[in-house]
Amino acid sequence: MNEQTNPLEIFEKEAPEVARAFDQLIDALKQTTGLDSKTKQLVYIGIKSALGDSKAISYHVVMAKTLGATREEIRDTILITLTVCGLSGVANCLPVALAAFDQV
Predict the structure, then answer these.
(1) Following CA atoms 47, 2, 4, 85 in sequence, which dihedral angle do they give, to the nearest 10 degrees?
(2) What is the mean pLDDT of each run of 10 residues along the chain (104 residues)?
(3) What is the pTM for the complete model shown?
(4) Distance from C-alpha of 94 to C-alpha of 104, rounded to nearest angstrom
(5) Which value, to the nearest 10 degrees, does the dihedral of the CA atoms of residues 46, 58, 24, 4 take?
(6) How do the domains of the chain map onto residue ranges?
(7) CA–CA separation, 75 vs 49, rounded Å?
(8) What is the C-alpha separation between 14 and 1, in angstroms, rounded?
(9) What is the pLDDT of residue 3?
(10) Other Cβ atoms within 10 Å of 75 Cβ, number
(11) At how many degrees (to 10) do helices 54-66 and 37-51 cross?
(12) Could you count the other beta carbons within 10 Å of the beta carbon of residue 56?
């Protein structure tokens, strides 16, 4: 798989019914009211950083910034993963996150 391949497009092509069900799950999670949308995006950024998923980071950073997240909130969300996951997620994801934030 090359860098230009979008894994979600492959998922949708290869398993359209499962992809639709996944989209419905995402839509249902967006409708929950315990956290505001910006906070949900910050949680996603923290989780994706802990997993070292730098590709997803750039998407969620753009969404978080659009919802009002600051550069400092993005940075701190990633830095807090240090205590649980060590340096790997920060090293892989912080540069990507800040670059994505600065480009929007």
Answers:
(1) 10
(2) 72 96 95 96 96 93 98 98 92 96 92
(3) 0.85
(4) 16
(5) -140
(6) 1-31, 35-103
(7) 11
(8) 15
(9) 53
(10) 15
(11) 160
(12) 19
